């Protein structure tokens, strides 16, 4: 699993506690962002910044502040201290710190951490989510020596969305809500993991009639551009399909 590989990379260089807390906070940010819970997504960014700053301390100063102790306020003076560590890769000195500071400022000054003029919103949450994703990818890239493309692929797959709508056990999967229409079940499966084999999805859904599954379930989804049926017997979910799957999940969860 991709998270396991990323965790191993981070743990080997920064220790178990830092690796756990960094990835757990990233997972919370992504899950809340996917579910359009803007305020929790932005709030969790604060925990991510705290762990990422400890990684910077290890890289720049040789050791990190204990989680039992409070980090210094994230001031311009702290940024200057990072930047002045000559001979260290500029990502650790300049690029990552400035990105983290921007995340921190939005989290604290846009009505998230404190009452502000601007309420938590999709625009800010999107900026935070993709900035956090870049920071994580850059940390993993530098720690592993992987190429940018290989690192991005690893980060893109880091979170397996174990929705409580899907039961996974010993190599098989089932949609737990048996009242869901087959089309909705397909979108949920592809939202969880895409692409998927068509026959695998039919088996998971337990849709007995193979021709009808293609004609009555998949082809209408394809026609609506919610999924893409490929010639190799697999399906991908489209950006439009992801939005539709999120709506289904939100209705079921809340």
TrEMBL record:
<protein>
    <recommendedName>
        <fullName>Abortive infection protein-like C-terminal domain-containing protein</fullName>
    </recommendedName>
</protein>
